[in-house]
Fold this protein.
Amino acid sequence: MINAILVIGGLAALFGLILAIAAIRFHVKSDPIVDKVDALLPQTQCGQCSYPGCRPYAEAITNGSADINQCPPGGQTTIIALADLLGKDVKPLNPENGEEQVAMVAVIDEKECIGCTLCIQACPVDAILGAAKMMHTVIAEQCTGCDLCLPPCPEDCIEMVPLAQSIDSWKWPIPESPVIRGSISK
């Protein structure tokens, strides 16, 4: 009994050592600016910026091949944050990439769903749950509202609805005109 525990403990230590050496030896260094830009993007992986996901778009921004105003899901807030981080001028959202919209979430009409799994294959964040020839449903907490599940659906049973506001998602509205210090009469 004690021999078995020692052998398993020794094997665990050996494999742990091998994994530690491999992690150090094969460590992939990434650009910290790319990491910061990627952290500011909304991580919808929707492709509206003409890149396959948020990480490739972040890499394109940092190497200068893409502008900071191509992310409709992030909207003007993300453009301002990127401009601040990179020291660039704030630009309006590029209309060729889409328009800024309220946060959306996909909802599947489960009575009409035929279980074709085409929406599951199209979802970049695996927010759709289901099996072949069975009804599907969307995990609302994981859905990024990218609309990529709509085109492949043969039954048109997927609808995008505005994300319900909760205490966690509510934000103060931006004022129409900023108050300038000294402009308020006493």
